[in-house]
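tokens incoming
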């Protein structure tokens, strides 16, 4: 398998759409309520053009930036495409919603597991090593349970189907296949660089990294754990980058099997029209990457008969 280029092509599911990111540009295609495909493209600036992306370990911060800033930006665009001008989400309401969502997420996935494991420790007097393992299991169980629960919602199931479309498109491209919905559909919904696998890797690494601080008081340990999240993300990114670059070894494929298996919680088999959206997004990104054309704020394609 050839060496990965950084940043490797990747993407994210949106509401009725797909985001694709290259090394210098990003493109998103979304199916509007009238059946047309809207395309939004932008050049990547700021942190993406800095030397950070070439520094081992620190470049993992781009993953956090993707999730918290770039991904949220395009998720908002896709939501606005579906809701229309009258119900557009923007301004203080948007930032307030994002802040509350972030705080709730940190409470559920960081503070709650720490509080529960602290309670277990006080009741059972288990060794610190066992309690730290229990905290990791609690955190992983909450994460998997949350994903499974929201995945039963029809709206989220469609997002997960677009996630599957994104994976299939990138897999087909990396295999050198022609990007047509009927061909791309044959490829797997699994991909070694998926954010779902990244989540599992972060949880496993957190068990190891949080372990030395188990003896600290709860009110000291929680802020410290929050501060260590960027470090864990950087380590997890380097691990996933390395494994994705060494899939020619059978033991590496065995090592990442849990990551691939977990992806079936966040992906669904896409329809051909979903694959069309994903391919349009990918082609728009590739066109900008190869030709260095100027980005377009919006372009609308008429619906195709698929």
């Amino acid at each position: 398998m050839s060496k990965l280029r950084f940043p490797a092509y990747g993407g994210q599911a949106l509401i009725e759409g797909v985001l694709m990111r290259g090394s210098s540009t990003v493109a998103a295609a979304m199916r509007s309520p009238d059946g047309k495909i809207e395309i939004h493209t932008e050049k990547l600036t700021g942190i993406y053009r800095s030397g950070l992306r070439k520094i081992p370990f620190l470049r993992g911060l781009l993953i956090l930036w993707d999730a918290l800033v770039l991904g949220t930006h395009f998720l908002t665009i896709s939501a606005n495409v579906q809701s229309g001008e009258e119900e557009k989400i923007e301004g203080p309401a948007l930032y307030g919603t994002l802040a509350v969502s972030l705080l709730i997420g940190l409470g559920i996935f960081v503070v709650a597991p720490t509080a529960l494991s602290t309670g277990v420790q006080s009741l059972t007097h288990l060794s610190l090593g066992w309690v730290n393992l229990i905290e990791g299991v609690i955190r992983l169980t909450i994460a998997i349970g949350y994903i499974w629960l929201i995945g039963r919602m029809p709206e989220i199931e469609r997002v997960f189907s677009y996630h599957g479309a994104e994976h299939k498109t990138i897999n087909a491209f990396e295999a050198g296949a022609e990007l047509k919905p009927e061909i791309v559909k044959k490829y797997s919904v699994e991909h070694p660089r998926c954010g779902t696998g990244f989540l599992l890797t972060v949880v496993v690494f957190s068990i190891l990294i949080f372990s030395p601080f188990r003896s600290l008081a709860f009110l000291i340990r929680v802020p410290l754990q929050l501060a260590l999240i960027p470090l864990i993300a950087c380590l997890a990114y380097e691990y996933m980058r390395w494994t994705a670059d060494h899939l020619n070894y059978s033991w590496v494929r065995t090592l990442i099997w849990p990551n691939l298996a977990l992806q079936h919680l966040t992906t669904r088999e896409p329809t051909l029209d979903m694959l069309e959206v994903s391919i349009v997004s990918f082609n728009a990104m590739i066109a900008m990457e190869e030709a260095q054309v100027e980005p377009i704020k919006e372009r609308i394609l008429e619906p195709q008969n698929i």
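note: The two ends are 34 Å apart (CA to CA).
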